[in-house]
Amino acid sequence: MKVLLVDDEQELVVTLAERLGFRGVDAKWATTGHEAVVLARQESFDVAVLDVKMPRVSGIQLKKDLERIRPDMKFVFVTGHGSEEDFRIGSAEAARYLVKPLDIDVLVETLKQVVAP
Amino acid sequence: MTQVADSGSRSGDRSPSASFVRPDLEVEPKRYSLNLRRMWQLTALLMIIVSVAPLMVMTAIDYRVTEKSAESEILLNTARVVSNTKLAVEFSLVERLAALDFIVLDNSFTELNDCARVGEILEQLQSSFTGFVDLGVIDSSGHQFCYVGPYALSGVDYSGEEWFADVQKVNTYISDVFAGFRHVPHMVIAVRHDLPDGSFYVLRTSVDVALFHKLLANLEISGEGDAFVINHEGVLQTTSRSHGDVLEPLGLEVPSVADATRVYETPGPDGTPLIVGYSYIPDTPFILMIVHQKTALMEPWSDTRRQVISFLVVSLSIIVFVTLGVTTYLVGKIHWADRQRVAALHQTEYTNKMASLGRLGAGVAHEINNPLAIIKEKAGLMKDLFDFGDRYADDPKLMGIVDSILGSVDRCSAITRRLLNFARDTDTTPVEVDLGDTVTEVLGFMGKEAEYRTIDVIVEIGDDVPQITTNKGRLQQILLNVVNNAFAAVDDGGRIEIAVDRQDSNHVGIRVTDDGCGMTEAQRRRIFEPFFTTKSRRGGVGLGLSITYSLVSELGGTIAVESEVGKGTSFLIVLPIDPGSKGGESR
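Predict the joint structure of the above. Result:
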């Protein structure tokens, strides 16, 4: 399973990618939308885990961009903000919606469910 | 995001989580400054003055005018009676004088020397006129040589008498009333007749005072009136009703000489005002007087006055009563409206504060969540390194530290998540709400306090309770207010029960029961009124439950309370399961 992690907090995505690696998930990370698009063009991912709130390109916009490149890609949204609006959009647009701080086991479980429904 | 208006009493920060999300809604209860007492006084005073003053002035003017006219009417009436009576009295005297004149002209002196003839004449006189008592003929030396009458006056010598001297100067003479030799009040009328030889004789008669009495008694005099005759010296010539008997001095001053009839007002001997009318009867020593008690004459007017004044007093009482009543009612209404306004203001402020706190909480939670996520991942990575690598696998102390970090992060994230939940719930979109979860969330804020105060909190959720569609934020505020109220009511070691069950097909009930101090019936009836508080000494404003009440109404539900002093209080909140279109109130 190949996962693309996108979050503007580099410390978070780096660590998360490493941890997912321990659990047999092949995770690449990006800290901006642009990097994510570049990565997506280079290779295919099963799931993208996107932070909803990011500078310049938001998670929602990025999802649309990535969908154009990889139509089969699944999405999981992550947010540190629990507003109603985020929740509604997150639930509507993506397969799953998780609130930070993440529980690594929950994340892995979610990814598995998203990839193999 | 929620808290209660009445939480001022809970100043001790025993529960950090609770105090963090429960900023006191401390408002100044005396912020509005309508001086209602002064308003009441001014309004009542103004209204009373405006309505009473014209009435008083009109009554006063009317009083003056009618009094004047009543007085002048009395004076006029008195003058008329006096003048008529005077004419009658004068006429009766003139008549008798004329009769004597006729006798001396009709009879020669020789005839009058015959006493038998004089007796005949007296008889004729008495049959034609009243009052003649006797008749005497006196020669120029003053010797009464002929006398007929009931007294033995024949041969009496009048030469030394004053009247005899007077009658020589003027042809006729009318005396004062006097008792004389016979001790009966009478007056004397005398006529002088000159003889051709230069001497003269006088025909003299005494007239009974009853003559006057007859005339005066026929008068109908109102107002305890008194008609009598006095002479110029102020001696009564007739009997008066209340001013003395005949020949007694009159208690009043002798009125000044006047040709015509006069009426004046004077204080009587005992100080009561009298109306006195008088007239000098010409060519006689007599003054006719009519005296009235003024108060008696004014009686009809006074009666009317009394009626008018009683009417005025009654009107004034009604005006004052109605004015005070209406003013009190209106000021009360203003007071009520003002309190409604302030309460509404408070509620708006409260709602705005809630929204601000929601945004603040969300911001804080978001900002903390990001670094928290990093801490968690880093610690997680450390753990992963222990678990998946073998370098540190046998170091139980490090593992313990990492677990402790992760545990603390979880606690932090539980707090931020709660904050985020409340922040989200300040939005007003109706959502499906699980009542059990909501109760648990609300109790999350009270958990520490319950623990410290060893309060038993028992939650019973009925199996058949469905999810309801409602505004979650409002619901949380309602529950928190009511639960907070229960916490304030119970003593340490008390018990609070929260029972949720289905009421009917479209309603659920949430019953919050405590075993606290309870309240009286009077308190119970007023408990949802704005500004009603039993916690004023502890800083309560009295808005918590009134806000709760309006929040429940907003959700289309009802709230009721049962209470017994010393036993406890039970709030029952009934909410619709699906309020339909009513769910989405705007802010």
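Chain A has one domain: 2-111.
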